[in-house]
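=== RUN LOG ===
request id: a7f3
mode: sequence -> structure
chains: 1
length: 288
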Amino acid sequence: MPSAMTTCGHLPPERAEGSSAGRSASAQPADTPATCTRCITVSSPSALLALSGRTDSRPGRNSSHRPARRRKPALIGETGVCCRDRTLVLTANGKTMAAVALFHHVLGLTPGVIAFADDLRRAGHTVHTPDLFEGRTFGGIEEGMAYVQEVSFGTVIERGTRAAAALPAGLVYAGFSIGVLSAQKLAQTRSGARGALLYYACVPLTEFGDAWPDGVPVQVHGMDADPFFAGEGDLDFARQVVESAGQGELFLYPGDQHYFADPTLPSYDPDAAALLLSRTLAFLDAVS
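=== RESULT ===
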C-alpha cells in the first residue's frame, strides 16, 4: 500500500491521471504528491490510481495495451478509502461518514469548540473549524459581541462564506450561537448541503431565502429558558425553520444556560451536553 497518507481536501480534475488534463500532470516527478478528493494524500499519482480503483490503460502501462482489471478500493488504515469519485469518506468497516463545517460562538475558536469537534472526529467524521475571528478569543459574551459589532456581523458572516468556499461541497453546516449565522446561511444557499446543526441560536428563515431548501435536514438545539435563545426570538425562528424543513427537529433542554455544551465554561450542563452530542451523532449517521 502507498505510504505518506494524510488527511486532505480535493484532487483538482487536472491532477487526475487518465484524464486529458492529467496527462500533462503525469509528467511531473513520481514523488510529486497527489491529493484525493476527500480523504488522503498519497505519495504519487500511480498510488492514487491504485487506491481509487482507477486504472491507467495508456500504452506501455499494461501488457498488450489492454485495460487493466479495475481494482477494489484499498482501505486506508482505520479511517477510510480513497474517494476520488465519492462525496464522503468510507471508513474501514464500509460505513460512510459525514464532513462537517463547524462555526464557533462569540467567544471565538476556543478549546471548548475544539473539544466538541474532536468528539465528532472520534466518531469518524471529518470536522473543519474555520476561525471567524482571525485568532482572537474572548472571556465573555459582551467582550466578544463588542468585537463583532466593531467588525460588523456582515464581515463575520462573509468570513464564514469564504472559509466554506475553500472546502468541498457536500458538507453538514453546524454553528454555535453567532456561528449559526454562517451555518444557516450556507445550509440555505450553498448547493450540495447535507444538513444543518444549529446550536443555541436561529435566525428568521427569510434572512437567507424564502424557504428551507428541499432535502436538507436540520436540527436546532437550545435551552427552554435561555435568555438569548428563548428570550430574544430565536426559539420562534427555530420553530419556523423546522416547520418549513421537510426533515426538521427542534430540541429544547431544561435550563437557562446559553453555552451549555461547552465543558470549559461554567454554563456547562453535562447531562444536556451528552444528550445534544448523542442527537448530533445520530443526525450525522442519518445523513452520511
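=== NOTES ===
The longest strand covers residues 218-223.
The longest helix spans residues 270-287.
=== END ===
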